[in-house]
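Lab manual, section 2.4: Encoding a predicted structure.

Procedure: take the sequence of the chain (189 residues), apply the prediction step described in section 2.3, and record the output as structure tokens. A sample record is shown.
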Amino acid sequence: MRSGGCAGSGRALRLDPFGLPVRFSASDVAADGRVRDVELHRERVVLRRSLSGMRMALNMPVTAYDGISLRLVPGEGGTEDVLAVVLKHSDPALTLPLFVTLQPEEALAEWRAWGQLLGMPLLLAEQNKVSQAANAQLGELHIERPRPRRRRRSALKLRRPSILLRRGYGKISETTRIHRGEREIIARN
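Recorded output:
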């Protein structure tokens, strides 16, 4: 595994979403040395840290996370506010920073790239630390990517007869018999 893919120092952080797997260090207030090592793969996340001299590794699937969150981090000591793209977990100690910047356009592009690459929902974090899904919406109408047809990618695909897909509909032409004014039509052999 390569250990690249991370650029910057201090509050500037940029992980390359297309350079996975990636290994980097993140701050952890509870860990010895206030740092933990993280390995991020497309399918899993491995967190390594030392707590009171005991080394531990936590191996979790990426699906255990809630989604990719975009949040505004207030500046400390008169510095500017920064935008952070994080892999959000319900436990705040397991939330991982992926990208930190001052530029909103860069943050938006990275947010979308990480969400698409990991197949995670995009979340917007609010001031009270609550995240909600970011969906395009027109009034009451939610705009989302169209879903695939059920028959093509369904677990039940093999149970359905394929003849139903080949059957055509009936056509009325000049020679088709039309029965009007009759009480009952009975099909006889």
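Check your result against the sample. The chain has a mean pLDDT of 78.
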